[in-house]
Amino acid sequence: MSYIRYDEREIIRKLDQLDPVAKVSFAAACAERQIPGYIVFSNQTGRGDPDALIAILERVWRDALGRKMTDDEVLLELDRCMALIPKEDEAPWVNEQAYAEDAALAVAYALRARSRGESQEAAYAARVAYEALDHHVINRLGVDDDEGVLMHPVVQAELIRQHRDLDELRVDDAGLTEAVSRLRDRARAEAAIFFGPVS
Fold it and tell me: pTM of the predicted model, to two decimals?
């Protein structure tokens, strides 16, 4: 059976071919799909601030769609986002904390991609999405071998989404706004199934 492996070098290679706005949008899509993990963590523990994280991510999307942030605003939003990442020593630790950390980190990486324009920053957002699902498949679904985790349908679905997003963002300037808008809307819809089908 053929399946996709997580290959960060290949993701970076594809990101290197994209407009800086497309790089940020790719990272934002990876973050958007992970937002439910942060919400669940906050609902369970009373910690974190999902509304603030969602608002920061929305500002990233608006920037990608043309309502540009100043450099100072990008840094301010990044500071706000970093403050929303659950700390390792917060007690009590719950399993969902890992999902919240990854979701907030993905938003931070989108902001860092916006600030620096580097493909690696956008690729980190893809990595934490992969890591969130790796954690989920091992700790929630009980899969305990590397190949089983990689081949699991929720992991494969996200890897397919990432490659699809990268391919669809390879557009000229005239088509970029439409591609980003479509990507945002689809990522928001896919957030509901990031951890698996809705029953």
Answer: 0.95
Q: What residues have CB less than 8 Å from 44, skipping those under 6 apart?
A: 94, 96
Q: Where are the domains of the chain?
A: 8-186
pLDDT in tens, 57-85: 999 999 999 999 999 999 999 999 999 99
CATH superfamily of the 8-186 domain: YP_001051499.1 domain like (1.20.1590.10)
DSSP for 113-130 reads: HHHH--HHHHHHHHHHHH
Reported as a single tens digit per residue, the pLDDT across 77-124 is 999 999 999 987 777 778 889 999 999 999 999 999 999 999 999 999
* Separation between Cα atoms, residue 145 and residue 190, nearest integer Å: 26
